[in-house]
Amino acid sequence: MSVRDLIVLGSASAVPTKARNHNGYLLRWDGQGLLFDPGEGTQRQMAHAGVAANDVTWICVTHFHGDHCLGVPGIVQRIARDGVEHPVNAVFPASGAQYWERLRYASAFHDTEVVREWPVSGERTELDLEDAPFSLVARRLSHPVEAYGYRVEEPDGVTMLPERLAAKGVRGPLVRELQERGRVTAPDGATVTLDECSTRRPGQKVAFVMDTRRCDGVRDLAAGVDMLVIESTFLDEDSPLAARFGHLTAGQAGRVAADAGAGHLVLTHFSERYRAEDEHRFEDEAAAAFGGAISLVHDLDRIPLPPRRAAKPRPPQ
What we know:
Metallo-beta-lactamase, Chain A, 27% strand, 317 residues, 7-stranded mixed beta sheet, 2 domains
């Protein structure tokens, strides 16, 4: 059974708390598992969440501040220890290759050859691998060290419309031929095209935006996504601190989601400076700008991807 959901393994920022572990987010996508920013303690959080090293097919690091990468050694070594056989794609900023190398080989262990490295550079990099059901776009952000956000994007598909197929006399093996070739000859001799008997099914899209100020990269990553996972380190009252250290406030995260037309806004990466009773303020400030669904996450939360957005059928021809 295919599963598409986000498992929150950690939701703190630079300093973990008693209630929040360092970062860690596993996006499960039809048998693929994208592990974003494994911070310290991620391996143990995975055990609490009931997921294993074998569930990881991607490791995506936004940047090399410790709360976003210090879990890499444990994850890589667990992949080796558990004998994971499938390829694991490791994506990270090329400018931090020395840090990746140190983390990748942080201690002695029986190494694995399944980890495939994909360093990214420039303003935008797109990985479109044959064995993945989506493309992964990395977009440069604005932070004191080079950082990238990621966008997971599924290609659009088509939904066949039975009533139009019937009206055109297309049935049985002709339906598959129509799907594969884009046109068929109906029993009455007429040519029938795929556009006449289908509607576009928009592919699902998820953006993962960590440590950054507002910038073009944030806008591009978030545009039209079904789910936007985004840092909201500070409350709006501390916006000068956010700008100084290269972060977003909850209100800014809400405005990003509203401007982008996002479906579901997921707030995370909270500073330890705030108390538990302040949590509602993050959601309130985001909701003042964004009227859609909002999840203020806690460790081990599971958030399903929203239902697919419907596309309008093409007019009959």
